[in-house]
């Protein structure tokens, strides 16, 4: 076997030997796959998995109930849009306890949680376009529906909400880290390279931003930009650049006096080229490691904001929002409604932290 000679190849070999790093990486790849194909995997593929069944709210995992599906007359939707963003309108689903057929259609007794006699309703055959006779209604429009993780307080499928909610957590991580890297690397590199008054001004901005509690600053930015999906991404990204800037500045201060930088200046290269082509590639190791930690931090901040009600807005599923809706159920005998999203957040954050630790060990030149 040929021995690796480049620093990148050596670091990659070290990373492959770290069990928890590789395991976490595989777990995150799986999470990204689930996020991309969430609506194809989720049992409820309506937009935001928002199909409500109030009569079967807060049911335990594995709950099964017969479901009558009444199709809706809507225009055909783009299959690609449905695959990635769900159906904008879906058929009505009614949990039933029993049913009988009549001459004109089907008579159902709605499911009742307290096992009392539910309401009886009759639906005519004309509501079921694919049923040629009353007998075919049962075959084509009534089926047992199983909720693997149970239902939330609105009777929505919790598994579907969890699968689609992973998009929020991963998206906030990617976009927030991208914004923090863009601002942090730029500010840190300029301050560290030029020094003097430029560095003093940048350090003043960094110190002022650093002194404000992160969550308070995020809340202030979110309220200024308004509640919403993209506003949270921008707010979190604008608060995470400070640590990146400090690390980059410190690395640039140590590297800018190296011989290869001096040689680049002697050759007449412009400052922008020296920073981008010669300095930044040699200081990216700590930046990559801190990005993994920032990714985990962004997920926690978004979950906290959603729990406070200023993150992703309903009916968009968010793990923090799901905990907010159900934290009271911990003392009401149904703690799984809050524990399941809590465990999901914990596992995703832990995976990023383990990857960060593995990258730190792999890029440590002393080893």
TrEMBL record:
The transmembrane segments are: 20-42, 168-194, 201-223, 229-248, 279-301, 336-359
Q: Which SUPFAM superfamilies match?
A: MetI-like
The record's similarity note reads: Belongs to the binding-protein-dependent transport system permease family.
What's the superkingdom here? Bacteria
| CDD domains per record | TM_PBP2 (cd06261)
Q: What is its main location?
A: membrane
The name this protein carries in UniProt is ABC transporter permease
ABC transmembrane type-1 domain: residues covered = 166-356
Localization per Swiss-Prot or TrEMBL:
Cell membrane
Query: Which InterPro entries does the UniProt entry name for this protein?
Result: BP-dependent_transpt_permease, MetI-like, MetI-like_sf, OppC_N
According to its record, how does it sit in the membrane? Multi-pass membrane protein
Keywords on record: Cell membrane, Membrane, Transmembrane, Transmembrane helix, Transport
- Gene3D superfamilies, per the entry: MetI-like
